[in-house]
Amino acid sequence: MSGGSAKPKRRKAAGSALRYDHRPGRSHADEPEQRDASCLGGCAAFLGFLALLVPPAVLAEYRGHALWGGFAPAWPGGAYAFAATVGAVAPLVLLAWVVPLTRMRWKRSKTRAAAWAVASLPGLAAGYLVVGVITSTWRPKRRRDWDGDCYREGGPCWVHVHYPWLWAVGLAACLAVIALLVGLFVRHVRRSSATAPSTAGPADDPTPRSPSGTGDRRPSV
C-alpha cells in the first residue's frame, strides 16, 4: 500500500551551462572595441564643434572695431546697407554649404561624396565670415562688462549707440531673401510637376462617323 501511494520525484533543473548557448559567430570581445570607437567618434564630434566656434569668436574679438568703425560706414549706403547685405547673404551662404552635403552618397561612390564635401567648404568659409560679422555686434551679457573698450569706436556698445536698428535691418533682409528662395522653390516644383511626362497611354483614335452620325453602331429596332 505504501509503495503505490508514493509521489514521483521531481527532476532536477538543468545547469545554467546547459540552458543557455551562445550564438555562433558572436564574440563578446568585440563589444569593448565598439564602445571605444563610439567614444572616440563622440569626442571627435565635440572637438569639431568647438573648432567651428573658434574662428568667428576670434574675428569678433580682434577685427570687430575695424569692421564697424571703418569698413561698414564706408560701405555704399552706410552701415545700415552693410547690415542689410550681411542679412541677405546669410541664407545664400547656408545653402552653399548645405546643398552639396545633401548630394553626398557614401554607399554609391566615395569619390563623388568626397568631391561634394570639398565643394561645401567655400560655403562653410563664407559662413564663418558672416557669423563673425554678426557676433562682433553682440554686447557682453553683464552690463558691468560694458567698459571703455566696448564703447570705443567700432565696439559692440558703440555700434548699438550709433546704429540702434542695425539688427532689425539685417533680420528684415534675411527674411526677405528666405521668402524669395521659398517662392522660387515652390515655382520650380510646380513647373517640374506640370512638365512631367504622363504614364498613361495615348488616347485611341476616333472612329470614322457614318453620314447618319451613328458610326459603327446599328440603330435600334
UniProtKB/TrEMBL annotation:
Annotated Basic and acidic residues bias: 19-34
Positions of the UniProt region annotated as Disordered: 1-34, 194-221
Origin superkingdom: Bacteria
Biased composition (Low complexity): 194-204
Keyword field contains ATP-binding: no
Record keywords, A-Z: Membrane, Transmembrane, Transmembrane helix
Membrane-spanning residues: 37-59, 79-101, 113-134, 165-186
Protein name from the UniProt record: Integral membrane protein
Organism lineage string: Bacteria, Bacillati, Actinomycetota, Actinomycetes, Kitasatosporales
